[in-house]
Design brief:
The chain has 335 residues and is of the alpha+beta class. It folds into two domains: 104 residues, DNA Primase, Chain A (Alpha-Beta Complex); 179 residues, no CATH class. 42% of the residues lie in helices and 17% in strands. It is built from ten helices and 15 strands. It has a five-stranded antiparallel sheet with strand order 1-2-3-4-5. Strand 7 and strand 8 form a beta hairpin. It is elongated. The chain starts with 5 loop residues before the first helix and ends with a helix.
């Protein structure tokens, strides 16, 4: 009978580890908390201050740090290796000993050959990761430079622009290029890194290669003690900003709500009252807007708010701008 290979042993350990997932996570990430079938914690490997950006699935062992694109893995062995800063075989051996699995038998392994293979594989992965990171950083840098040039050459947006008229909004800080192209700024840590371009028909796109995850479009000034809203699109954010006077952070899409909310909590701590103003996609299976907003609120320890629909409001309305437009038209019809 052939001896199991090292990758096979690591996979077996990862599978067995799921049977003791909660106990292991309590030991490795003791400040974490269980939210449903996900373990939310501080990333001790990079020393972040607040739980929420780092999550581990208790069903599969998959883990991810929304504040660090390079920090993710598919099982509990890779998680322990990341937290310990060691090789996966060493993490697997630690789990094997901790759970008394007996899968690793030193007599069945050529340790010296194993270590050489592991080192060679690690070096190859690190090199590939560095190359990919450099490629991604260049794409992001090129897009940020393009964003800065376009923003500088653009003029203040025309309040008669078709998109603004359709949304019933003033241009606020938006700028405009030729052919009716609106520019919505996307920032990261206060720096312009990308643009959302909205054409005269309302079609939206981001600059090719530009960052989107964890980036946002800000409206208003954030002060200590203020209420800070986080929402999806710019039109929703502008509506909230105008009607409340509070600062708003536009995450641009539902999938970006959670990383942006976590980033804002890490940036401002408890000095602001964080409120996730979610979309209510009532006619979409699973209501992705409400689901994403609740997840973001849980991750960032924030309040969550949804539109309060009147009984006669059409079911296809989903966000705060929709509600604003409907109410405005409703008042006109009653005059």
């Amino acid at each position: 009978m052939s001896k199991p290979s090292t990758p096979d042993l690591i996979r077996q350990v990862a599978s067995h580890a799921l049977n003791a997932v909660e106990n292991l996570l309590l030991e490795w990430l003791p400040e974490g908390t269980r939210k449903g079938r996900e373990w939310l914690a501080r990333n001790t490997a990079r020393g972040d201050r607040h739980a929420g950006s780092f999550g581990v699935s208790m069903d599969t062992g998959r883990w991810n740090d929304f504040a660090d694109d390079a920090a993710h893995g598919g099982d509990l062995v890779s998680l322990l290796a990341y937290l310990r800063g060691c090789r996966q075989v060493e993490a697997a051996q630690e789990i094997d000993q901790r759970l008394a699995l007996g899968l690793f038998d030193s007599s069945s392994l050529d340790v010296e050959l194993l270590q050489k293979r592991i080192q060679a594989n690690d070096e190859a992965r690190q090199l590939a990761s560095q190359v990919e990171l450099q490629r991604l950083q260049k794409k992001h840098g090129d897009a940020a430079n393009q964003a800065a040039k376009l923003w500088k050459m653009a003029k203040s947006a025309d309040r008669q622009h078709n998109y603004l008229q359709a949304k019933g909004l003033p241009p606020l800080q938006l700028r405009q290029l030729s052919q009716g192209r609106l520019l919505v700024p996307l920032c990261c840590e206060g720096r312009l890194v990308n643009l959302q371009i909205i054409d005269d028909t309302g079609v939206k796109r981001f600059l090719t290669g530009g960052r989107v995850q964890s980036c946002y479009s800000p409206l208003g000034k954030v002060d200590n003690g203020c209420r800070l809203y986080i929402c999806e699109g710019w039109a929703t954010g502008a509506t909230l900003h105008i009607h409340t006077g509070s600062p708003v952070i536009c995450a641009m899409n539902a999938g970006n709500l959670k990383p942006v909310a976590v980033a804002m909590r890490e940036r401002y701590g408890e000095s602001v009252e964080l409120v996730i103003a979610g979309d209510d996609d009532r006619q979409t299976l699973g209501n992705p807007g409400r689901t994403a907003a609740n997840r973001a609120a849980n991750a960032a320890n924030a309040l969550v708010l949804f539109p309060d629909w009147p009984t006669d409001a059409p079911a296809e309305l989903s966000d705060f701008n929709d509600l604003h437009l409907w109410r405005s038209q409703h008042k006109k019809n009653q005059l």
